Amino acid sequence: MKTENQRAWFFVLPVLLLVAFNALIPIMTVVNYSVQETFGNNVFFWQGLDWFEQILRSDRFHAALGRQFMFTGLILAIEIPLGIIVALSMPRKGFWVPVCLVTMALPMLIPWNVVGSMWNIFTLPNIGLLGYFMNDVLGINYDMTQQPVSAWVTIIIMDVWHWTSLVVLLSYAGLVSIPDAYYQAAKIDGASPWKVFRYIQLPKMKTVLTIAVLLRFMDSFNIYTEPFVLTGGGPGNSTTLLSIDLVKIALGQFDLGPAAAMSLIYFAITLLVSWLFYTLMTKDDAQ
Question: 150 and 189 in contact (C-beta within 8 Å)?
Answer without folding.
Answer: no
